[in-house]
Fold:
Amino acid sequence: MIYSGGISSLPTVAQVFIIIGIILASLYVLLAIYVVSRVTIFRGRIIKKRAGLAVLLSEERRLVTNFYNLIKSKEISLTEKEIVSFEQLFKINPARLGEKMMPIHFSRLSSCRKSILTITERANLRESDELVDMFDSFNTIDAEKRRLISLYNTDIGAYNYWVRVPYLRWLLWIFGTRVKNKV
Structure:
């Protein structure tokens, strides 16, 4: 059809607003799809990092248990605070660590490691080959744990960034996506 220059062939104002509305709605849907995909990616990364942390924590807990059994076999006396520290650690199952329990478990492991250092100094066990290997394992696990916590916190930061995208918070909130805390 050849344009004859008539005004009746131009779109009306209502049609222009409808076209602009459709374009804006399409852009909003594309943005929502992109943001949801990014949130899903970082959620998967966080789950994998949490599983890795659970493995490291269970390995560190195993070392603490071995040390506790060694102390019992050598009949070294423990203070009440040290006994409570070890018993609190043994109550937690590292395989079922949630987002809120992870910092508590870290603090309990830290207090147990301090108790271990105190006990070894008090009982003069520093020269024991078994303990030297155990401390090397502690240091290796601690270095790996720090690296993994750093990566975990980085992924949490990125996840929280995408969760807080303006104009899409309500949509993500409906799907149960909430801001997560760093370790």
